[in-house]
Amino acid sequence: MHIKNLSLHSFRNYERADLALSPGLNIFVGNNAQGKTNLLEAIYVLSLSKSYRTIRETELIRHGYEQTIIKAQVAKMATLDLAVMVSEVEKKRLLVNQKSTTANSFVGCLNTVLFIPDSLQLVKGSPGDRRGFLDVQICQIDPVYRNNLLKYQRVVRQRNSLLKGAWENRSQLSQLPAWDNQLVSLGAKIMMRRQKVVETLQYYSKGAHERISDEREDLHLIYQPFFETEESAARDRTYTSADLEDILRQKLKDLRTEEVRRGYTLVGPQRDDLVFRINDADLKKYGSQGQQRTAVLAYILAELELMCQETGEYPVVLLDDVMSELDKNRQMLLLSILNQKAQTIVTTTSLDSFTPETKERASVFMIEQGQILH
Hints:
By secondary structure, the chain is an alpha/beta fold. The chain has a domain at 120-312: Glutathione S-transferase Yfyf (Class Pi), Chain A, domain 2. It has 12 helices and 15 strands. It has helices at 36-48, 103-106, 127-141, 143-165, 176-212, 230-233, 241-254, 256-262, 283-286, 289-311, 328-341, 356-361, and strands at residues 2-11, 14-20, 25-29, 67-75, 79-87, 93-96, 99-101, 112-115, 219-224, 273-278, 281-282, 316-320, 344-348, 363-368, 371-373. The strands form 3 sheets. The chain has a 6-stranded antiparallel beta sheet. A 6-stranded mixed beta sheet has the order 8-12-13-3-14-15, sandwiched between helices. 38% of the residues are buried.
């Protein structure tokens, strides 16, 4: 899978940009605030139908314009023409081969893995950050999971509303059983899929980490359901769907009083976590910055293999100014692996991070004030 052509119309600081991309390595060079990150954001929008930088989609529109159009021609087993149109006055439109479609059908047409400086905080960040990272990848390869996740999020919002109002109107609690049933059914499906995906990520990340660390350290990626401690999760018990439904029902019963007291849902996969361990020690607590970055790199490389295993094609890799965050060895290893497998789009403020051989085989573009020069 790779992007053949990309077209931007009144997107962020781009009035218009049309460019052909190499199926291999593409490097975009420019000073800060010239439009490098905006370019990757546009590709991400074509992949996930939304931005990773803002929830206000009208911010994507260039100042002084009423709409933005992002287009790409994507080479897969068949070539697809993708487009996203965001307007100040109309509903967002998603198009595949010039035909409007839903987000659920649009997501998955162009798969991406995004690696930004904030990604290096994956290990040290919050459980919500790690869940979000995991969910973004699963949603691209599994529309059923994405649909279940959206339904589940609506269930939790509705339950939270009822729980908050229960102090003043106890009769609202009579509505909870119907929502509890949906929470159990959808929650178990989400957790089953996460469990399976993390097993795959563990397999691939372990191998990638051994390669990066010269087999000096052992990385263990652990799925931690909301009802387990880190230590119990480390035993890697595999749950069936029936197991998870039973646990969810029991936890809802056990925590009902506490949920009413707090006014929000305490049970379910919205409280899951992902744990990184190096040589059986918690990487978040005891790992050095170098160890944490190596683990994140291994995780990113594992995501490539997961998505290829699920879809038959490697995703497009987006690297936003991360080369300066990595030492030379990690830079070269990352690019050497990616160059063998996936279209890679890198932004940087300087070509000094790249060897002459890397620059020779890459397509290099210069970006200045929203203008792209090849």
